[in-house]
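Entry 14. Structure prediction run on the chain below.
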Amino acid sequence: MKKSLLLLLMALSLNACHLDTLGLVYSRSGDVETRFAQSMEYNARTGYASITVPEDNYRVYVITDAHVMEKETRNLDRFVKERLADKDAAPFWINLGDNVNDKGQAGVFENHIAPLAEAGLRHFPTVGNHDLYFGEWEEWRSRFHTSTYWFEVITPGRGKDLFVSLESAGGTLGRSQRAWVEELLTGSKGKYDHITVFTHTHFWKRDNSQSHTSNYNLEETYDLADLFGRMGVEIVLGGHDHATETTLFKGVRYETLESLKMDDISPGYNIFTYGKDIKRTYIPVEK
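Output returned:
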């Protein structure tokens, strides 16, 4: 058995030069409890954002799984250009992780999204499993600081919406983050028009297309789905599987989003319009 595992890891190393095979077995970016504590330390220093928008209806741009490398940024650049051209969208955007595909590429990603920050557009990211491979959590954290947090959007006449970022890059929320999100949602129930949870790993695993280190076990999926249903979460956004899928469970809408990765079949990003309800528009990018 040990010999078979060794041969499998050797084959993966030879056939996937951008794959952290050791990272598929265990995380070299610490455990989820440590990463959660570090996110909470940052949040305690900076607080949580409250954003005011001028209209009751507003558009939010969302990307996931860009997987950029030095010469593979065309799709990301297309997203940046089109987001900058939309002057009437909300002054922030959401990023569901897997920014990079290899070690040392976080700076490439950050350089290519810099025009958005220069235009005053807030970036709300969560970390993906590829952002943890090769022990890259500290690199990600040095740039984006926290992966577990919340922010709210205040409209002029409709009320407020809550957005919650959860860190699921290692395939679990862990005990501390699970307790944190339950406390947050309990205190938020009935106070917001829409509650959106966003994270990297999608909840409804259909097959074994992703490694065990980055998918929830069934017990955790059912537990979180029950929590979200009881606490009035309306929509949960995820990426990770590079495919579009909508699942309704206990009154909650789960949206798995298509990736922005250059060599995928149908790369693109999404625009979510918040108003009386939440509408999704998929924007493909050119191959």
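Residues 197 and 236 are 5 Å apart (CA to CA).
Filed with the rest of this week's runs.
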